[in-house]
Amino acid sequence: MHMQLNQNDLSLARSSGLLYLIIIICGIGAEVALRGPLIDLSSASETAAAIRNAGMTLPLAIVSDVIMALADAALAITLFLLFRSVAPGLALAAMIFRLIQSALIAANLLNMQIAWLLITGGQDSAGLGGPDAEALALAYLNLHAHGYDLGLIFFAINSFMTGLLIWKSGMFPKIIGVGIIAAGAVYLVGSTLRFLAPEMFALFAPAYGLPVLTELAFCLSLLFSGWIWRRRQIFAAA
Prior knowledge:
mainly alpha
């Protein structure tokens, strides 16, 4: 099947691409540049010291994740509108699973906020000694990591559906659909390891490079969908 795109479809695709770009920048920025370097799950004291010394870095990571979750919810809607003519039921199901993921990730940020309050004294911890408060804060940070992976389970299912929609639509190269499905498999396996075999999670972590590449490719395809579609029409007419 090949979608006959109109100007509204192209506008939806470009808007989706922009939202996807925001998600990639905010998501990777929050984890790699802001939150990740501060957290050492093997040491509560070192994590607490790093967060205190970093000033507003952890709150900035929370803000970045909030923006990511908002953009993700909006993207769920725009992709539904873009693909609903391809397979209405599948597009609706994909939107629902992506919205569930967005809600879980947003709600899960409360765990990081609690950790910030415990470490910086924003939460009354009179019943806790310093080390106990830091250990509790680290437990909340660990819970945040698990909660994030719980959201990724729903995103994995969304990725399977979105990849199939890309394949069926004919709007983008089919390899991108295959890549998004493969990214979903990575998310599903990684989240499963986080819960059932955490000692193997670190070994599997490099596999997350695949979703980064495939989602970036999908993002760029959305942003340049008009150019891609015009090129296809030229080749089809030749």
